[in-house]
Amino acid sequence: MAAAPRPRRSVLYMPGSNARALEKGRSLPADGLILDLEDAVAPDAKDSARDQIVSALAEGGYGKREIQIRTNGLNTPWGHADIVAAAKTSADAILLPKVESADTVRQVANIMAGEGAHEDMRIWCMMETPLAMLGAKEIAGAHPKLGGFVMGTSDLAKDLNCAHTPDRLPMITSLGLCILAARAFGLAILDGVHLDLSDDDGFAASCQQGREMGFDGKTLIHPKTIGAANTAFAPSEADVAWARKIIAAFEQAASEGKGVVVVDGKLIENLHVVSAQKLVTMADLIGEMDGA
Q: pTM here?
C-alpha cells in the first residue's frame, strides 16, 4: 500500500525534547514535520522527549501537516519503547533510522499491529548507509505498511567517505538507487537536508536538483528554508495550465468518440493524461494546504 498522495514539498525536523519547537510546528507553513527522538535528542533526554511528543500529538493542532515520529533504532535502549509509544499516537508515520534490511521493517510492523496502531499509520525508512543503498529494492518491498524513504545524506556521505559537494555527484548513484526502488513500489521519497543555512543559493540549487531527480520534497533543519522548498517543489502555474488543457482536450475527444488527441500540435497519449491528472491533483492539494 503506497503512501497517499499529498504535498511533501517541505518536511522539517523538530527535536522532540524542545517543547517550544513542538508548539511552533503547529503554525509553520511546512507540509510535514518529523518529530525527532533520535539524532536531535541527547541520551538523557530520550524518555522525556518521547513523553513530550506523545502529549503534543494528543493535544493536536497540527492541521493538515503530515506528522512523522523518528524513533531510535530497535538496537538501542530506547527504540522499542519509542515504537510502542508512537504506535498509539495519531501520527501519520513512524520513521525508522538507519534501516538496512526488510526484516527491520517487518519487525516494526508487527510491533505496531500489536499495539493497535491506527489503520493509516505508515512506516518510513531513513536511507543513510551503504548497506541500505544496496538493499533498497528489498526494503521498498518489505511490507504493505511502508510509505516512503527519507534520504539521510549527511550520514551517507560520512559512511561513503565521500565529499559532500554542491552537485552531490559522489552520492548520485545512491540517490538514484533509492529513487528507483521507491518508484518501483509506489513509495514517496524525500531528499536529504542542506546543512549550510547561510548558503541560500546552494540550498536553491539543491532543491532544483532534487526536483529534477524526482524527489517529492526536501527535508529541512530550519524553518527559514520552508518557503524556498515549497516554491521549488510545487508545480509551476504554466505546468498546471498545460495539464488542465490536456485533460480538457482528452475529455472532449472522448465525448466525441475520437481516439486521437492533439493539443497545440502535440499528440497526447493516455500516459500524458495520467501524468496531467496527477499534477493537477497535487496542485489542488497544495492549494488546500497553503489555504489552511
A: 0.94
